[in-house]
Amino acid sequence: xxxxxxxxxxxxxxxxxxxxxxxxxxxxxxxxxxxxxxxxxxxxxxxxxxxxxxxxxxxxxxxxxxxxxxxxxxxxxxxxxxxxxxxxxxxxxxxxxxxxxxxxxxxxxxxxxxxxxxxxxxxxxxxxxxxxxxxxxxxxxxxxxxxxxxxxxxxxxxxxxxxxxxxxxxxxxxxxxxxxxxxxxxxxxxxxxxxxxxxxxxxxxxxxxxxxxxxxxxxxxxxxxxxxx
Length: 229
Description:
Layout: E1 6-9, H1 17-21, H2 24-29, E2 31-35, E3 40-44, E4 48-52, H3 72-79, H4 84-87, E5 92-94, H5 101-105, H6 113-135, H7 141-144, H8 157-163, H9 168-181, H10 185-201, H11 209-220, E6 225-228
Parallel strand pairs: 1-4
Antiparallel strand pairs: 2-3, 4-6, 5-6
Helix pairs in contact: 8-10, 9-11, 10-11
C-alpha cells in the first residue's frame, strides 16, 4: 500500500524481529516476493521508510537529570531488538531531544515549506538529468541497466560510483571513515547516495568533503528517529 509513498513505523523496536527483517528485501530491491511450495508472487514495494523510536523502554535515556533504574541495559536491550542487517539499510539516524518549556515559548520561524519544496524539486530535476546522461552513454549502458529510476535513491551501485564520485578531500574522508567505522559495501554506497543528494540540495555538482561528512554523521548517530532514504 505504501508503494511510491512513505511507510511510517512508530515505536520501531515494538515490532517483532521477523516483521522488521522482512523489510530488508523491499528496502534493497523495491520488491516484495512471497514464496510458497508451488508458486512465487512478486509485488512492487518501492517506498521511503520513516521510523520513530525511543532511546530505551522508559523513553528517558540521555535526558538531563534522569537515570534509568536498569542502567545501560535499558538502552542496549531495547535498541538491540533491531538487527544489524536491518539497521545497515537505514541511511539517516537523527536524534530528537525532548522539547523544553523554553523551546515552546521561544518563537523560531524556520524556512518556509514552499521554499524547501522548490529546492527539493530542483534537486530531483538535477538527479534525473544526470542519471539520463550517464545511462545514455553506450559504454556504460550495460553496467547501469540495473538502476530502477532517475533519483539517487534508485541508482545502482555502479551508477552511484559514477554520479557521486567525490573530490580528493571527500575521497580521503570517506576512506578514513570506512576504515574506522567498518562500513559494509552497502553502507558505503548508501553514504555516497546521501552525500550526492546533500550536494544536489546545495546546488553543487561535485560531492565534496562537507557533503560526505554530513552523510557519515547521519549514519553514526545513536538515534530516536531513523529514516531510510
